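During the second year of the project, the team shifted from modelling isolated chains to modelling whole assemblies. The rationale, set out in the original proposal, was that interfaces cannot be judged from single-chain predictions alone. As a representative example for this report, we include one of the complexes processed in the last quarter. Its constituent sequences, exactly as entered into the pipeline, are reproduced here:
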Amino acid sequence: MTEEKEFRYDPAAIEAKWQQRWAADPKLYAAEPATSQKPKYYVLEMLPYPSGQLHMGHVRNYSIGDALARHMWMRGYNVLHPMGWDAFGLPAENAALKNNTPPREWTLTNIAAMKGQMQRLGLGYDWATEITTCLPDYYRWNQWFFLRMYEKGLVYRKKSKVNWCPECATVLANEQVVDGCCWRHEETKVELCDLEQWFLRITTYAQQLLDGLDKLDGWPEKVRIMQRNWIGRSEGTEVDFFLEEEINQGSGIRDQEKERQRIRVFTTRVDTIFGATSVQLAPEHPVTKAFCAADPGLKTKVDELIEEQKRAREAGDVGAIEKHGVPTGRFALNPYNGERVPIWVANYILMDYGTGAIMSVPGHDERDFEFAEKYGIEIRRVIAPAAETEENKNLPFLSEEGVLVNSGAYSGMSCIQAQKLLQEAAARSAFGEAAITYRLKDWGVSRQRYWGTPIPMIHCECCGLVQVPDDQLPVLLPAQVEITQQGGSPLGRVPEFVHTKCPTCGGPARRETDTMDTFVDSSWYFYRYTDAKNDRKPFEPAIAQYWFPIDQYIGGVEHAILHLIYSRFWTRMMRDLGLIKNDEPARRLFTQGMVIKDGAKMSKSKGNVVSPDDMVARYGADATRMYALFAAPPDRDLDWQEDGVAGVSRFLGRVWRLVAKHSAALHVKRTGFSPYAESQRQSGALAPEGSLSGSSLKLLRKLHQTIAKITHDFEGRWHFNTCVAAIMELVNEIQAADSQLEAGEVSPAVLGELLRTLVLLLGPFAPFLAAELWEELGEDGAILRAQWPKSDPELAKEDEIEIPVQINGKLTVVVRVPAGAEAKAIEAAALADEKVQARTAGKTVNKVIVVPGRAVNLVVK
Ligand SMILES: [Zn+2]
Ligand SMILES: [Zn+2]
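Output from the structure prediction step:
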């Protein structure tokens, strides 16, 4: 009874002991300074929002990163593995409303709780570099960067249509609008309104951000595709159609257009311009407005289109809108041939995309075709297919593989050739030019919220916009703010904050009351980790240059677009400020799959949330973490099964008993000597391999295969599920050899090495148990500082291998032959096999093809 109790695996006791020891050793997970002789490795998991509770998705994300960090420590790298808090944002304000707790207090309490959970999980972070983005020592640098960008012309103000969530009482970015509703309030329809907003000129970097993707071969292809689409580059031509009749001056048309009386369109297919049978304007185009000013009937109809467009935007998809238009009764002239084409106003054309006007070519564009059919507008062919088929003889004909027809002097040319010449002609006659447009828009960073970084600008009646001087940073968030859900910025209701002195003229002035989008915080946080305590600079450039780029970044694919595009932009901006030298923040990116339960994403409303705390309390942190790695390949979704966690816990119990059982007998003390290492075998320090028993060799073979497999996986494949399975197989094999162990057929030196290496292999996956068993085996010092085992290819070699035998291309049987067997021997083994003999009986074997080590093919008639 006592013995059984003694042999009970008790994760709670083991883990509490090591948690305490680790907490008492702040150097354990600390990176060495940039002067370290070791190669550097920066592994980073995306920092969480401090909601107050880790969820299983976090546990999975951090278990992957922590396993990698531990592995790299054991490989002898100088590892930076930090953690922090993306601590600004709306939930703190909502919580303040609900519970009457100030956002700061709520946030810091949550951080403490989550940090405790992380420590309980045994995650190896260097807490000395922890950052909390809602604290002034961090957000002052957001303000500092904002000012630097302002000085470089990368910041501007513009009145713009914004998405307004009445529930959040704030502006949302386009991407925070999901199907016309707020991303946080799935039931709340987003409204549009006009507001003066601050923008960062990310579009300046559009081409660089696009080109940089080609070099990011350590990023998932799907992420690169998403970013390419988001940037949305299209090459084409801008062309001016001339207005047939002058329109009144003073009608609000841009100066250039007023002067020239033109409508500029953007097209990717200028080769089809002779097929343009109308010009279509956005309802809010200045020319439309000018027409409306002179035609009240038209204005009524256009107002309806504006309404439709607004509703479609609110519903989230202007592309799917039922296409409507109204003819204006006016005409424009095709600049190439002077042809009169009617001008329409259409509800699917947006003023903020391209030039807000298009030429409509129904013969060669799906959408234009649909519109022309609906309204009886002429449909004309101007491109003929190179060879007519059943499929391409009807319009619309969309391909660029064709020849121009009905196109004046350009008829007979290929599309590509005509595009070039038409573009040149436009430039020559000053009615157009080659142009590139991007879908990417400038980054609207204004938020009418309290819990964010105050924008460090001052509005002075005399001087206009004035920067807050650097020596007055940070502009502190006032502590006492009444959070309500009324519109406008909460900071606007704090007179002590708003009223200030102009730094330039000393006169009375108002502070900007908008705060920054929280994506600003996460755009550069990983640089701050490298020098988290610096109070003179965001970070010391030399230190950041040592650590960057991040070697491995790990996080959810939901951040594939915004967070990563903003931080790639920020990196380039900092590079251009001379702070860093790298163009990209991370060399490799990994996006893990989701954790689901019963086939659905875990959510409170579905009642299928599994709490990490419950799992840890029931099975221990090691089992919880190891299960998160074992249950699925890391890039796939993981369906959480509690039985599975229990299974992993039982397995860890078996490992614990296995080591405990033998360690006492072994009295293993490390002497730096390995019973089978090549050098020692050669120097005769140990019995030559030949004298190791068959049982020893078999176990060592399995051990070295396992080392090779896991090492290889860490180097890139990352199939940690199969790594854990391989450790399980190894343990099975050692246990199956129990009678040989008892009989002394395996020497204590070999057994010691087996167990010691097993524990090292467990280190990245089950750090508590590994630390405990490391000590149990008599090892001194942290297992993290022990060397990762090396696989000996000679020992790992199978003495028998399996060779598939095919008859006429069909797999018939698998035969076992000695590893390294020659073709003749393999052929003989295949022909001697019973099944093969049965299948070939009474037939002629015409040919035997042997691929040594791989396969045998028999051609039989
Ligand atoms: Zn909302
Ligand atoms: Zn002033």
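The first helix runs from residue 2 to 6. The first strand starts at residue 40 and ends at 45.
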